[in-house]
Design a protein that fits this description.
With 125 residues, the protein is mostly beta strands. It contains one helix and eleven strands, in the order E-E-H-E-E-E-E-E-E-E-E-E. The longest helix has 12 residues. The chain starts with a strand and ends with a strand. 19% of the residues are buried.
Length: 125
Amino acid sequence: MAHFAKLGDNNIVEQVIVVNNDVATTEELGVNFCKSLYGQDTIWKKTSYNTNAGVHRLGGTPFRKNFAGIGMTYDEVRDAFIPIQPFNSWILNENTCIWEAPINYPDDGKPYNWNEENQTWDLIE
């Protein structure tokens, strides 16, 4: 099955729908099908269910960096779906189009929450 993301103002994803592969044999045909259902003025981009952080989980070719989700942004320059920035201090990784904390998550197997005020990972107790 093919997935298509409907874009709204500022290229924010408003909806993601599934289209049968028999209909969406190309992105253009899939977009045309979506427009026939939702109106010719709608903007649609194909997205890959199997792509996350620039990696295709089944070993295929990654597509648009991340599977689109409601609230995400489609970046035309990067040709990528970018998640909502979780904290102001987090930095977009240009290779994965995933937001990363300014310091690495501790690698000790314990659970932590990000503390934006202190810019630290706080142990969950």
